[in-house]
Design brief:
Blueprint (H helix, E strand, L loop, with lengths): L1 E6 L4 E8 L3 E9 L5 H5 L7 E5 L3 E2 L18 E4 L1 E2 L12 H7 L3 E4 L3 H11 L2 E7 H9 L6 H8 L6 H4 L27 E2 L11 E6 L4 H9 L3 E6 L4 H6 L4 E4 L10 H22 L5 H6 L6 E4 L1 H9 L4 E17 L5 E12 L10 E7 L5 E6 L4 E4 L14 H15 L2
Parallel strand pairs: 3-4, 4-6, 5-7, 6-8, 11-12, 11-13, 13-14, 14-19
Antiparallel strand pairs: 1-2, 1-9, 2-8, 3-9, 10-12, 15-16, 15-17, 17-18, 18-19
């Protein structure tokens, strides 16, 4: 069955329908990952987007539920060069096309994804529409594929309430079985979830994880290091978080424009200010960053991707939309302190601005992107907090920066030892 991708500038790509037949509109983006298509589909950060896989063969290892980053796919549409009809893997639980149909994802294959990617790189991210089935036949008969009304519909699409829209996507562990360390805890009726039992290595550090659309692997990495994790919804008030008496605070990844989340940003600002006031009482205004990290009652903060952006906004920085974003598992970033270069997994369309006067005095740039020089990390000098734009919990992707979770653990250990 034929399908068409229509871009906002009137460009049309003709291909074959995959997944559900119908019509969908979204922001057309591309990701350069050579593996991890299941993680891409189930990553809440892709909410509102039609995702193009630049790797030419997708679906070759089928569907493996254990690899999902959330309960379901969040993409608005899916574009691949070639879809594998006969997957082969000992963990395979089904075909990708059946998975897309089950979850109502409209897709297209058989188009020149290299040409599409080149267009998006040169023109920037643009809205698009995938159409197939009876509706496509009707549009073709009436020569409406690129009519003014269709293009207006495509151009008018906006991603709104992104973080709110992806709530409730946490993976639920299998009932009546002992929960493995790699599983994710379901959100309870109270809206707050917590890991049960004792931490696997006895560290007993209690981390509150803000769910802005969190990938499951963030919690897996914390639990692997023995943390007790309490997952709270995006709109949990600062006072409620403080009442949980956490040893650390994790700000997760998520979708959309970070500046849209005004209430969340204000809550993060409050938590940072409380930290700052506590540290002043303990160490005074002249404390070094090392002293701040180990000061009594300080709550170390670690932000990833959207969490990184919203932490920056809460401290007085600014963000802006990138031309075509960073998505994939091959993005080089440089550690400005050591000079070392790491290959990272990334998925974001916005960045923290670093031009003169954009960063507050308390924010020290720690990582930069070697492709375009954009901000990839910040360390805060007045509170024990740091954040990165890339994904140190990458799955699939490189594990070069996984050590940042160990850095977070060390900060909690130092803070806990001082209490």
């Amino acid at each position: 069955m034929k399908a068409w991708l229509i871009l906002a500038d009137g460009t049309i790509f003709e291909g074959t329908s995959i997944g559900k037949t119908g019509r969908t509109t979204g922001e057309t983006v591309f990701t350069t990952g050579m593996t991890g298509y299941l993680e891409t589909l189930t990553d809440p950060s892709y909410f509102g987007q039609i995702v193009t896989q630049t790797f030419p063969l997708i679906g070759n290892y089928g569907v493996i539920p254990e690899d999902f980053e959330s309960k379901k796919p969040w993409v608005r549409g899916y574009i691949v060069r070639e879809l594998c009809d006969e997957p082969s893997n000992f963990r395979c639980g089904g075909k990708l096309d059946d998975f897309l149909k089950k979850h109502g994802i409209v897709g297209i294959c058989g188009i020149d994804t290299r040409a599409l990617t080149k267009k998006l790189r040169e023109s920037g991210v643009m809205n698009g529409m995938i159409v197939s089935g009876d509706e496509a036949d009707k549009m073709v008969r009436h020569a409406e594929l690129v009519s003014a009304s269709i293009l207006d519909e495509i151009k008018s699409y906006q991603i709104v309430d992104a973080v709110k829209s992806v709530q409730g996507g946490a993976i639920t562990p299998v009932l009546n079985k002992k929960r493995p360390a790699s599983s994710v805890i379901p959100v309870l009726d109270t809206g707050i979830s917590g890991s049960d039992g004792k931490p696997c290595n006895g560290s007993a550090y209690h981390v509150v994880l803000f769910d802005f659309g969190a990938k499951a692997n963030i919690q897996r990495e914390l639990e692997k290091r023995g943390c007790k994790v309490t997952v709270v919804p995006y709109n949990t008030k600062a006072e409620e978080v403080a009442a949980l008496s956490p040893d650390g605070l994790m700000l997760s990844n998520g979708p959309g424009d970070p500046a849209e989340n005004v209430g969340v940003i204000e809550g993060i600002r409050k938590l940072c200010e409380w930290n700052k006031e506590t540290l002043k009482q303990v160490q005074g205004d002249s404390a070094s960053h090392a002293e701040l990290v180990s000061a009594s009652h300080a709550i170390p903060i670690f932000g990833i991707c959207l969490g990184h952006q919203m932490l920056a906004l809460a401290r007085g920085a600014k963000t802006s939309k990138l031309k075509y974003g960073h998505r994939g598992g091959n993005h080089p970033v440089k550690d400005l302190e050591t000079g070392r270069v790491y290959i990272t997994s990334q998925n974001h369309g916005y960045a923290v601005q670093t031009d003169e006067g954009s960063l507050p005095p308390c924010a020290k740039l720690s990582f930069v992107n070697l492709n375009d020089g954009t901000c990839e990390g910040i360390t805060y000098t007045d509170i024990p907090a740091f954040s990165v734009q890339f994904h140190p919990e990458a799955c699939g992707g490189p594990h070069d920066t996984n050590f940042l979770f160990d850095k977070f653990m060390a900060m909690m250990e130092a803070s806990h030892a001082a209490k």
